[in-house]
Amino acid sequence: RLNTNTVTISLTDKQLIDDLHHLFPFFNKGSFDYSRYNLNSKIQYYLRKKNKKLYNHLFNAGVIPRKSAENSEKLFIPKFNSDLLRHFIRGYFDGDGSISIPRARPNLRRVELCTTSLTFIKGVIEELNKMGINTPIFREKNKTPDRNKILYVIEWVNTKDILALKDYLYTDSTIFLKRKKSLFDSFNPVPKITKIS
User: Fold this and answer.
1) Is-contact 89 131, C-beta < 8 A?
2) C-alpha to C-alpha distance for 96 and 68, rounded to whole angstroms
3) Nearby residues of 163 by Cβ (< 8 Å), 6 or more positions away
4) Which value, in Å, is the radius of gyration of the alpha carbons in the chain?
5) Is 129 within 8 Å of 174 (Cβ atoms)?
6) pTM of the full predicted structure?
7) What strands, in cross-sheet order, belong to the sheet with 6-11?
8) Is the sign of the CA dihedral 34, 66, 86, 151 positive or negative?
9) How confident is the model over 186-197, as pLDDT tens digits?
10) DSSP-based three-state secondary structure for 153
11) How far apart are alpha carbons 91 and 147 in whole angstroms?
12) Which of 8, 122, 101 is nearest to 54 (CA)?
């Protein structure tokens, strides 16, 4: 979140905030317990820094405030080289993606990446396809209840596609949300054994 030259990274995942603060110690670190006001809310951990140069640099690179609300169509894929861009996409996945285990099929995984920006999601699809990552399911969900916007979703359910996405996101990476990566790491599909008579 960016506001009045202040950059704030706010998450419920303390692990990622701690890892980022280790790399960028010039940020101020703190937390706020929103559950005091709403039982359905959680503690938010944050990094914050007021710095006009940093604010402008991030803004010009496509990191904009209220990206899911009124500024969603201003989102774009930055013009990084492909090796840097995969780290950007992994960061976006940590924020607005999910990986889950189907209750009826615990040996499988289901992965989603979503946004309210059609421009942004098309840019992600173009980049992933260019890197040989299939994006087999692209759909629109119903409008978001609080913002009246369409949610665009890429979904992966095929084992080969999910393993390719895992390699793309995590090979040689050092900063990521560990709870999501652990669900990728625990996905070890057993190859089919062909019986020879």
Assistant:
1) no
2) 10
3) 187, 189
4) 18
5) no
6) 0.84
7) 2-3, 6-11, 43-50, 28-33
8) positive
9) 998 866 555 665
10) strand
11) 23
12) 8
